[in-house]
Design goal:
10 strands, 297 residues, alpha/beta, globular, Rossmann fold
């Protein structure tokens, strides 16, 4: 494992099979506050938390906040076998990161696939859970959203520059994010494509599309109520984009019926998945984390 001395810093952890996993660390390594672990979506990277993570770390870095690049994403190593881009392997990677970085108990912020990993972690290592934020994901996944995601992951046309990439993203996602301006779309493009050898390439292994090939949309998508129940009595926040096609309002209501104390945040004018970059949303998450810490005392 290698690391810098102060955050934000890049840390590399060795996965169980030897692959290098990249973790973006905010806050001091010796911070005593309850840590936060941020888990991105399927084809997303730690950069998605560049607004949220430093805000949670606070001035002086008094809280350690870790944002993880899964294998095949961001600065983590790409797997020779794309079949390993699955939740079982990624859960093992997550456990390896928590062990290597001495994270005993934390609040987990999981966007989409990251939320699935959060629920799986609750079944595998419940003692690690001090609180959970599920960002636009729940135990019932709307197949309409899966169809849309399957249609673009690993299939985006290569842009000539980031400005052209911003236009590609705008055309794809404007219906879900109608209020984003040009600056926001350009920032999204920079998180989606990176320059390598004079070309813009996706910030993930395009073979991730194989993880979606086995989904038979003619059959009902398996539910994850058992995994959701594994979150037990820990503090829970669910964030839903008002325009989401992956997490329905009905599913959020059903989750709330099972967890009456669950906090629900609906982000207007955003779809799947909310960006977690707005001041009001960041403030709500920060308050949630602080309340989780108070519960530990």
């Amino acid at each position: 494992m290698t690391s810098g001395t102060e955050g934000p810093a890049s840390v590399f952890v060795t996965a169980p099979d030897g692959l290098k996993l990249h973790v973006r660390c905010h806050g001091r390594r010796d911070a005593q506050s309850l840590p936060v672990v941020c888990l991105p979506g399927l084809a997303r990277t730690a950069a998605d938390f560049d607004e949220l993570a430093p805000a949670l770390a606070g001035r002086g870095g008094t809280r350690r906040v870790l944002a993880i690049d899964y294998r095949g994403r961001g600065r983590s190593g790409y797997d020779r076998n794309p079949d390993n881009y699955n939740l079982v392997v990624e859960l093992a990677d997550l456990l390896a990161v928590l062990t290597a970085l001495d994270v005993g108990r934390a609040v987990f912020v999981g966007t989409s696939r990251g939320g699935l990993l959060t629920m799986l972690l609750a079944t595998a290592r419940p003692a690690a859970m001090a609180g959970a934020v599920l960002n636009d994901i729940g135990p019932v996944i709307d197949p309409k959203g899966l169809v849309r995601i399957k249609g673009y992951v690993g299939k985006l046309p290569p842009p000539k520059n980031h400005q052209e990439g911003a236009e590609i993203l705008r055309r794809l996602f404007d219906a879900q994010f109608p209020k984003l301006d040009g600056v926001a779309w350009l920032a999204a493009a920079r998180r989606t494509w990176q320059e390598r050898d004079g070309r813009l390439l996706p910030t993930y292994d395009v073979r991730l599309s194989k993880t979606l090939e086995g989904i038979d949309l003619e059959k009902p998508v398996p539910t994850l109520w058992k995994e959701f129940e594994a979150l037990g009595r820990i503090p829970l926040m669910v964030i839903r984009g008002a325009n989401s096609d992956l997490l329905s309002a009905a599913t959020v209501a059903a989750m709330g019926e099972r967890r009456s104390a669950m906090e629900i945040v609906v982000v207007p004018d955003q779809g799947h998945a909310p960006l977690l970059a707005e001041t009001s949303v960041i403030a709500q998450i920060a308050t949630f984390v602080e309340n989780c810490e108070a519960d530990q005392d």
